[in-house]
Amino acid sequence: MVRGLNVVKAGGAGAQKEKKKPNAVHAPGDKVRDTPTCSECDVAISKNVKALQCDMCSSSDSWKCIDCLDIRSPLYESLIDGQGKELRWFCKSCDASVMKHSEKLDEIVNMLKLLTAKNDSIETALIEKVDRTSLDDFSVKLSNVESAVDKLTHSSADLRKELNKSVDGIKHSNAKLGDTFQCKIDEKVGSLETTVNKQNKLDTHFIHDCVQGAVQVQLQEDLAEQEDIKRRKNNVVLHGLQEPAGDDAASRKAADDNQIMELFHELGCDDVSVDSVIRLGKMPEDEQAKPRPLLLRMASEEQKDKVLRQSKNLRMKYPTEPNRLFVHQDLTPKQREARRRLVAELKQRQADGEGNLMIVNGKIVQRKNRNTEVEVLG
Fold first, then answer.
1. How far apart are CA 42 and CA 16, in angstroms?
2. pLDDT per residue as tens digits for the range 357-373
3. Mind listing the pLDDT tens digit for each residue in 282-325?
4. In CATH terms, are 7-83 and 235-330 the same topology?
C-alpha cells in the first residue's frame, strides 16, 4: 500500500515530504516535467513529497499526497516502515470497481442463505405432517434431499472461492489495459453469477421433486394400509385350538367347524355367523407341534366385536390347557410390528419392576385398581 522514500514505479515515484505548502518551489535541477503530480492538488510528487500511489492501477495519475489524504506524518512514517504491509490504497476509480464486485459477492452469499432457510422450512413442514410411526422409513428418502443440499453447498463454496480468486486477481492486475480489462472483469463476474443462479434453480427443482415424490409415496402407503385394515375389519385370529388329525382336508375342516361351534356356544355367541374358517400356515408333520392359528371371518363387524368381548372368558375356562386359547383382531403387517414393539417394551418395563401395566389403544397404561401384572398374549 505505502509508497515511501526513493521508491520508483513505472509512471512515477513516491517520496517523503514535509507539510505541503500552497506554492511549492522546486530547486533548480528538479525534473518537474517527468515527475507525477497529486491527483487532487496537482503538487509535484518529487522525492521530498510524502504521497501514496494506487495499488491496483499503479497509474502516474493515481498519486495523492498525505495532505489530500488527511494522513499525519507519524502515521505515514509507521506505514512505510513496514507496519502497514497488509494495507492497500486504491484511487477513486479503482475503489469503485472493487466495491462493485464486493457487492455482487454479498448478493451471492445472501442467495445461499435464503436457499438454506428454505430447506430448513421444508424439513420443519415435513416433520409436522409425517406420522412419527413412519418417520424412520421416510428419513431414508429425505437423506437423498440432504445429499443434494450438501452438493449444492460444496458447489457454491467452490464458486465463491473462484470468485474471490478472480477479485484478488483484479486487485493485483495491471490497470493500464483500461476499458478492455474492465470489460473482461464484468464478463467473468457475470458468468459466475449466471452459473450460481442456474445451479440454485436446478437444485431447488430437484429438492422440490424429491420431497413431492416422497410425500406421494407415503400417501400411497397410508392409503394401502387403510384398505388392508378395512379388508380385515370382520376377522379374528384364534390361537390354541387343537388341530384335528387325519389326511382328509374336508374332514379336518368339518372338525374345525364343530370345535368352533362348541367354543362359540360356551362363549355365548350362538348368534354369531362365521363366513369362513382357514388354518394359517403349513400343516405340521409332528403331531405334538403347536396347532396352527385359525382365521375366522364374521358376517359383520358387530359380530366380530362381540366375539372379542366374550373371548376374555377363555382365560378362566381353560386355565390349565397346554395350548392356551385366545382370540385377537386380525392385524396388518404394520399393526403387528407396532404391537410387537409395544409388547417388547411392556415386558422390559415389567422386568424393571413396574407392575399393573396393560396395552390399550396402542399405548402402555397403568391398570387401575389391580395389583397383578398384565400377561401379554401372542
1. 16
2. 888 888 889 887 644 44
3. 888 777 788 899 999 999 999 999 999 988 877 655 554 545 78
4. no
DSSP line for 75-127 = HHHHIIIIITTT-----HHHHHHHHHHHHHHHHHHHHHHHHHHHHHHHHHHHH
Residue among 59, 70, 66, 91 at smallest CA distance from 4? 66
Which grid cell sits at 28? 533548480
For residue 359, give the 3-state DSSP assignment: strand
Please say whether the structural domain 7-83 has been given the CATH code 3.40.50: no
CATH 3.30.390.10 given to domain 235-330 = no
Helix (H, G, I), strand (E, B) or coil at 40: coil
In which element (H, E) is residue 248 found?
Answer: none
Reading the block at residue 291, the C-alpha cell is: 396347532
CB 123 within 8 A of CB 142: yes
Residue 212 three-state SS: helix
Domain boundaries, the chain: 7-83, 92-230, 235-330, 332-378
Strands (E), the chain: 7-9, 12-14, 51-53, 63-65, 235-239, 274-279, 294-298, 326-329, 357-360, 363-366
